[in-house]
Each structure stands twice: as C-alpha cells, then as structure tokens.
Amino acid sequence: MQGQKQFHDKVSTHFRLSERVPTQNLYRRLRDRVNWDFLRLQIRPVYSHTGQPSLDPVVFFKLVLVGRLENILSDRRLIEQCAPRLDILYFLGYEVDEELPWHSTISRTRQLYPAAVFEHLFDHVFAQCVAADTQVVDSAPVKAAASLDSLREKPASAVPPLRVADEQVDPAPAVAVRSAPAHQLRREVTRRAKRQAAPGGLGARHPKAQLLSNKTHYSPTDPEARISVKPGKARALNYLCSVAVDTARGSISHIQADFGDRRDSTHLPELVPRLQTRLVANELTLRDFVADTGYSNGFNYAFLEQRAITPWIPVFGHYKPAPEGFSYEAAVDAFRCPAGKSLPFRNYATSQDGNWVKNYRAAYQDCQQCPLKMRCTPAAPQQKFVRSAFDAAYRRAWHRQQSRAVQRMRRVRQRTVEPVFGSLLQHYGLRRVGTKSRAAAHKTMLLSAIAYNLKKLLKHRPTQCLSLAVALPKPPPPPGALPLQRRTRRYYRKCQPAKHEDNGKSRVLQQPRPSTTCKSLVRSDKVGYLVPNVGSMLRAG
C-alpha cells in the first residue's frame, strides 16, 4: 500500500540547537576554532558606561563575516538569509525564537567602529595562518557606490564668502575644487581639444557628450571615488584594492583601499612598511617582493633594497641601461659616446611631475668638433641625457630580469595572487563596495580578506607524524654466538653452485640442496648472530 507523509505543525518542547548542527559544519568549526572575546575589549572605549545596551560587538563581526562568506552585499538581505539558517544562528549565539538585529543597526555600527578594530581582527586571524618570506602583491579596481551620472564639474577655486564678524553661520558642505597642478590642467585642455577636433570620434560632437577627468570632475555621492578604467573594462568610479599574498599557503597578509586614479607604484611605499610590521609581529621576515610591471619605479627599487628586500619587479619594456651606441662607466658615473668623449654627471633636477632626475651633458667643444655630431645630435649644440635619480637601482633590476629566476617568480605570481583576486571579487562580496568614503571601503576589504583567511585556516591541517624511528644501541651478543657475517659466508660458500669449463664456455652444474641436518646445525637469534644448535649437532654426530 502506498504511504503518504502527514505533517503536523506542532510545538516541539525538546529541541537543542547544538544537536542540529553537524560537527563538520563551517560555522560550527569557526565558532570552536576562533576566540572572539577580545573584540569586546577593543570596542569598550567606543561606548559609554550608561544608556541602553548596544549590539554585541562579537555578534556584529560574526554577522558581517557571514555576509562575506555567503557573498551577500545587502544588510537587509543578510538578515533575511540568516534567520532560517540553524548553523548561522548557532554561530551567532541566537536561539530559534530570538529575533536578529535590525539591518540599519548593522549599518550604523559599521560606521561607528574605527578601522583599527577591523585591522586587529585581521591580525588575529592572520597570526593563525601559515606565511612565508616571499610576498606577492597586486591590485585591482573595485566599483564604488556611485555612478558616472552623478559627476559634477569642480569649481575653479574655492573663495570663502564674506560674512559679518561674530556671526554664527552653519558650516557649508565640503566641495571638491581643482587642486591639480597648472601644467596638468593645460595638458587636459589640450587633450580635450584634440579629441573634439579629431574626425570620426564616437560621440565627440554630440551635444551632451562630455570628457570626464578626475582633475575637473567629482561625484557628490562619494567624493573620494575616482574615475578609472582598465583595458577591456568600462569606465567607472572605483577604488583600488591592493593585496599582498604569501606563497606558503596563499593566505592574505595585507589589504588596503587606495584611490583608483593613481598608479600602482605610488602605493608601494605605504604598503611595504605595514606589511613588514605585521610579519615582524609574527616572527617572519620579508625577503622577496614579487609584483608586476605596474609597480616598476626607480624609487621603489631603491626603497626595497634599502630594507634588505629583493624586488622581483620587471622594468618597463622601453628601459635601456644606456642609449644605443653609448656605454656607462659606473666608476666615474658618466657615459662614453661612440667617439670616445665623456658625458659626465652634471646636476640633479626635478621634472614637472616632481620626480628627481640626473642630467648628463657633454662638453660644448667636444660636440662641436666631433665628426659624428650630425648623426648624434644634429639640432642641439651638445648631447645630453636625462636619467632617473635611481638609475643604479633600475640597472640592477634590469640585470635581475635577464636571469631565469625572474621567470620562476613570474609563474609564482600568476598562480598565487591572481586566483585570490578572482575569489575575492566573485565569492567574497568584493565585486562592489556598498559603502561610501575610502575608510569605509577599507573596512569592507578587510572583512573580505578576513573571511578568505578563515576559510584557509579551516582547510589547513598541520602535518602529523605517522611514524617515528629511534636509534637504539645494539644489544650485546649472547654467550657462545658466532658473528652472522662469518657463518653466512661459510654457509653460502658450501651451497654455491660450481662452474664447469667445457670448450671455453662456462656452464653451471646443478648441485643438490643442502640437507636438513646441515640446516639444523645453525639457528638464528633474530639479533644479528648465529647460535650453534647443540642438540642437532649431538644427534648428527
């Protein structure tokens, strides 16, 4: 007979939440593995000793980490997903009939807590992960909570309005102004004019078309978000996420939020000291620094070498240790031209962008009397070179790039940091920053990194010792025992087959096996000696 299940929605009086969550569940293992009590001590200075009790800091951090582990960006949707999950309720410490916090409470609490508390939790989790002395660094843009439609043009200058003395005036909201240098603004105007004058430009002559730049536009929704674009991706308001990953277990050792309109190389001097401080606190040493060409900079090379770190960063493709036909003499810091004349170092200078450079210039008389002047420098009265002030560090990096070790480091970078970025953007809620301001974006990135390291922490299993060998002293031989080597040679000499010579060819003759009486004359004591069998010898005699 076919059966049919009947369901009666009855009240269960005998129910324990811990019995319904398996021991191998992710959130149960996190509850048992990580100690969360230190967060209450970190947050205590933020609150007053009076008033209504706030949301438990441990519950808040567990909730936001659940959102990263479940790839949920919305606080409202996070509460909806956590309510029917028994394992999450057990992880948070809530009963089945207990209401979860309101979603707006999570948003206000996130704004209240400083970024130092998030970094302390990151350090607490990272200290339990395995790290190495080689760190791989990379960056990627993360979408901000602002649209390009919200962009407004920056005013030319911010002149404070006149007001009567001793008059109370409400402070006006901060407005971004054009703070870029004059030469950059002129370059931007020239670029716009060429773009509009170019024939066939897509949308260039449209009445609503506008050329957007961080030097002339800003977003009132999130003034710290920057316009950035990468090859193959649409232009958007982004933040830049810089990540350092260790090569031992692939755990994240550092993460930070930066402005999206700057080059990767400008963030390295700020990233390395923080990374070194964290590694030193865990008794680790940073020896090798691996990154892509975006971090190539003369100052970065010298900065890392000064800290006893080997920079495995490829130089730009157009860099050359010396101009074609010229040779560099490091002893005198000068270049030698094809005619044999010297171009010595003259002075230091700064470029328009503020970078330090070195000027090398030949003597006026040498170039004027040189027969190769029309081929070397036909327009200028003398030859001169402008090199970076850190050209020596550049040259060492270029020679390092010619070795085979740099190819191995390139493969290490590809298999280490790039999968981490793919996981953070697609599975840990970092495809978009749901908060405003750089500090809030930094908190969001820290939470994603903490969730990633927690997964790594649970997957890591320390190496167990399956077997142990101990060298023990050899016991003394029993009385009357003969050495095994001597008796064995004598025994096998008797049992070895004999050879017979027949017409110059060797032939082995079959011999009978030794008799049982011969075998029984000797027995082994399993220690490395042969003991004569006295009883068998008497019977054989």
Polypeptide structure, described:
The protein is an alpha+beta fold. The protein has 18 helices and 18 strands. The protein has helices at residues 26-33, 38-43, 57-69, 75-82, 86-92, 103-112, 115-126, 182-197, 268-281, 298-306, 364-368, 373-376, 391-401, 405-427, 438-459, 484-495, 516-520, 534-540; strands at residues 134-143, 152-153, 217-218, 226-228, 236-246, 252-259, 288-290, 310-312, 327-329, 334-336, 342-350, 356-361, 384-388, 482-483, 499-502, 505-508, 522-524, 529-532. The strands form five sheets. Strands 1, 4, 5, 6, 7 and 8 form a six-stranded mixed β-sheet that branches. A five-stranded antiparallel β-sheet has the order 9-10-11-12-13, with no helix packed on it. Strand 10 and strand 11 form a beta hairpin. Helix 7 runs parallel beside helix 15 (438-459). It is globular. Residues 499-512, 514-532 and 534-541 have low confidence and may be disordered. This is Transposase.
